[in-house]
Write a structure and sequence with these properties.
- Strands 1, 5, 6, 7, 8, 9, 10, 11, 12, 15, 16, 19, 20 and 21 form a 14-stranded antiparallel sheet that branches. This protein has a four-stranded antiparallel sheet with strand order 13-14-17-18, with no helix packed on it.
- It has two helices and 21 strands.
- The relative contact order is 0.20.
- It has a single domain, classed as Porin.
- It is mainly β.
Length: 299
């Protein structure tokens, strides 16, 4: 069993008009906004700044991953709700999330160094389930919060498709993440009840190695559904699209640095989400197989 600790530093360049955050398995690539002058909700299910603890295990020749997230950060925005203008910000710890991923199609779990040397993703499909606990910081008098004051979860089927030879410096993959988010009601949203329909998420990053230690990706993100209602007054279903790019650098066998930028593109309407985000991620990991490979390289 191995473990990885991830620390993310994240800065919003232009904040959405009122935000409640949820967690995403992949990098921040998702936007959602629904509403009207009477009812709206913004859901950004990205990976947030904070600490992430991953634990890997092989079960019946299939890999399994458990992840616990303790998010933290700051968000600010301006919005109009029920004829009133709001300008507010929130910071602190968000809702912790538990996530479990299990591989159902693709290469068998890596159990030893020969397995690692022969590994190629080919066409791989996972099942992922996530559950966020409503324990984050929340102010019922503000429409902008880090915590959601409600349970939320996701089920999805991440896909990795290897394109061409799996040779360091020339690897190419197309990834897909179809998923559905579910939300319980928030019964203390500005002294009213906020309900949100299921939200459909689809991400499609195309990743390519430039050299052995540097890779990049072009990312497309779509969010739809997620109609919000406040005390029964409904907003509109979502239909949002975003694009972005990521650049990654493998510092050594235990450290990887990534820099990413993402922006909404269908944001011309007065009620559309308009957001740009810049993110820096530093990933540190340890696994006995990796350490064994390093020792073989020195012999």
């Amino acid at each position: 069993m191995g473990a990885v600790i991830v620390v993310i530093f994240e800065e919003f360049l232009e904040h959405p008009p009122g935000v409640s955050l949820a967690e995403d398995d992949h990098v921040m690539k998702a936007f959602a906004l629904g509403g009207s002058d009477h009812a709206f909700a913004v859901t950004v299910p990205p990976r947030r700044p904070g600490r992430y603890y991953y634990f890997f295990h092989a079960q019946a020749d299939r890999s399994a991953t458990a992840m616990v997230t303790v998010p933290m950060g700051r968000v600010a925005g301006d919005l109009t709700l029920g004829g009133l203008d709001y300008s507010s910000s929130a910071r602190g710890f968000g809702d912790p999330m538990l996530q479990f991923t299990y591989n159902i199609l693709g290469p068998k779990a890596i159990r030893n160094i020969p397995d690692m040397l022969r590994y190629e993703p080919g066409f791989s499909v996972d099942l992922v389930g996530s559950l966020a606990f409503p324990l984050g910081e929340y102010d019922s008098d503000s429409p902008i919060n880090i915590g959601q004051n409600r349970w939320c979860g996701r089920i999805g089927a991440p896909v990795v498709w290897q394109l061409g030879a799996w040779v360091p410096g020339r690897r190419t993959t197309l990834e897909l993440l179809p998923a559905v988010w579910f939300f319980t009601d928030n019964d203390d949203f500005l002294s009213e009840t906020l309900a949100t329909d299921p939200l459909l998420q689809l991400e499609a990053p195309l990743t390519r190695d430039f050299v052995e230690a540097i890779w990049g990706s072009l990312d497309v993100i779509s969010m739809s559904g997620g109609k919000a209602a406040i005390d029964g007054v409904e907003g509109e279903s979502l239909s949002n699209l975003g694009v972005g790019a990521t650049l990654g650098y493998t510092i050594n066998d235990n450290l990887q640095l990534t820099v990413a930028y993402v922006s909404s593109i269908d944001d011309g309407g007065s009620e559309d989400l308009n957001m740009d985000q810049f993110r820096v991620t530093l990933v540190g990991g340890w696994h006995p197989l990796v350490e064994g490979m390093k020792r073989l390289g020195h012999d």
